[in-house]
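Dissemination and training. As part of the outreach component of the grant, students in the summer workshop were shown how a complex can be specified as a set of sequence lines and then modelled as a single object. The example used during the hands-on session is reproduced here so that future cohorts can follow it. Participants entered these lines:
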Amino acid sequence: MTELAPPPNLRTLFLAFARIGVTAFGGGLSGWMMQECVRRRKWVTEEEFLTGLALAQALPGINVVNLPIWIGYRLAGGWGALVSALGVVLPPMLLVTLMAISYGWLQRYAATGVALQGAAAAAIGLSLAMGLRAAKRQVLRLQPALVLLVVFVAIGVLRLPLMWVVLAMAPVSIGLCYRQVRR
Amino acid sequence: MRDNIYLTLLAIFAPLSFLTVGGGQSVIPEIHRQVVEVHGWISESQFLADYAISRMAPGPGSLIVTLIGWQVAGFAGAVITTISIFVPSSILVFLLARVWARHRGAPWQTAVELGLAPIAAGLILAASLTLMRAASGGWLAVVVTLATTGLLLATELNPLFMIAGGALMFLGLRL
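and obtained this result:
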């Protein structure tokens, strides 16, 4: 297990999530968060992050806001949760409003759309790389490997509703792990 | 009617907070029904433009509600719709995080962490596949995505370079 870094102050936390908010084009926010919080800054372990991610996805609410609240609370309590959520929402909120104001102008330049497509394609790569990294540790044993496969096929291939898949698989997977932990 | 527009916005968007799951796309049809069909606040084409902008912009996709609030009732409207969609569900997560922190290290928590990890990994991979399917840009988008994935796994380069690289590749080859 890698050593964790000391928890950040509120300003650092806000800026980290603000940066993720304004640079995550094309919807790869979870990938960015894992890159920042687990790999680069070593604030939380991979297991802690993945737990937060699964809960953030399964609970109601926007998962990319739920996850910063989870991580922010873990690192710096109630204020940590607040500044992390604000960090990921406020700067993109200003940006989206500015884009709406200049939309007519942006539309006149074909380059805008083309560049954003390219940025989005690269952002998906970030999400995929994080997924593969997280999967690497899970496929070493049969049970988590099977759980991973079922979730991936059910949502990615069969396109079943995410919430139902998680609600069905989580008790099974947690229950099996609980029996092993108690032993 | 003008004086209670803010309350109307609050009453429409706050319940939707609990109905959003995942990326927030699940409530788009209901938002459309309310603001275009029921109240007629904004036109169909304006709604589509808002949707396109919110997809194009970085950050949470559900920021379409900011744009709608802004067009319906100005700055205060934007603030109210954004708070309405984010805050109610956030309180729920916050309460769960508190309970979680209080029981840190308990055996059941270890089991939850071990049990959820493969599910989360499956979710990220499934999300990546869904994003790849939805991405516009054809074969070049797939090449950029896979090249970025490979570089990220093999090197410690800052992902921002790859985002910029992806944008430049598209500009170079597609313009």
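DSSP finds eight helices and no strands in chain A. Students were then asked to discuss how this feature might be tested experimentally.
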